[in-house]
Amino acid sequence: MSLPPDRLDRFARHIVIPEVGGAGQVALVQAHVALVGLGGIGSPALQYLAGAGIGHLTLIDDGDVELSNLQRQTLFTQRDIGHSKAVAARGWLANFDNRIIVTIRDDRVSAANAAALVSAADLVVDGTDNFATRLAISDACVTAGVPLLSAAVGRFQGQVAAFAGHLPDQPCYRCYVGDAFDAEDCDTCADDGMLGAMAGWAGTFAAMQAVRLLLAGKAAFGDPQYGKLHLLDGMKPAMRTLNLAKDPACRACGSAAD
Q1: Order of strands, edge to edge, in the sheet holding 157-163?
Q2: pLDDT at 31 over 70
Q3: Residue 161, beta-bridge partner list
Q4: Could you list the active site residues?
Q5: Strands 238-243 and 148-154, sheet pairing
């Protein structure tokens, strides 16, 4: 696949980087990313994934824009209040780059429908704000064999990690958090509040990690970093990385799943 002149111009700053190059940019244009949650993490992640030239974006969020969202959800303006986040995000994308294929779903993600929502993607980016939804998405990704990039933020702390529980030597998100958070009444990450810029840091870092993962095997920058949990500390500020192990007893991807 070759890129037409206008796309070469648009993505020139990527193409001249040896670690991305033309082959890497083509890989991004051919990629399909499902982004679940268009809030504080999903907003900047979407903007930079679109800027990177991801060719097909599926946007999943069942919420409407509220005034309190504007402190951190950079996609939206006051005119969007009361309107669907997914529809407003599609409008932003149409103005930003009308060559991107956009699919929107305003479904609430659950264990019953997660597989149908994510199975067609090359990568799922999860920016949702509660554990039950994250676990449903993770389990669906394991079943479908789709990599998952999970990002979360609260107060001044953030975390971003890539999971590939469908691979025999890699953990899934359930390996990390366990089964205790499956209940719908668990606290959400928004309950304690968050610094708006902290959500931006987590979201943009997640977008960079998504590009890294999508370029694995296609460009020098490619490195999925499965099982590496990156912890962002906005108070210091600082970042550190932990290695996560696969749980042999995990009911989603371990021996218990069999």
Answers
A1: 101-105, 56-60, 32-36, 123-126, 148-154, 157-163, 228-233, 238-243
A2: yes
A3: 150, 229
A4: 189
A5: unpaired
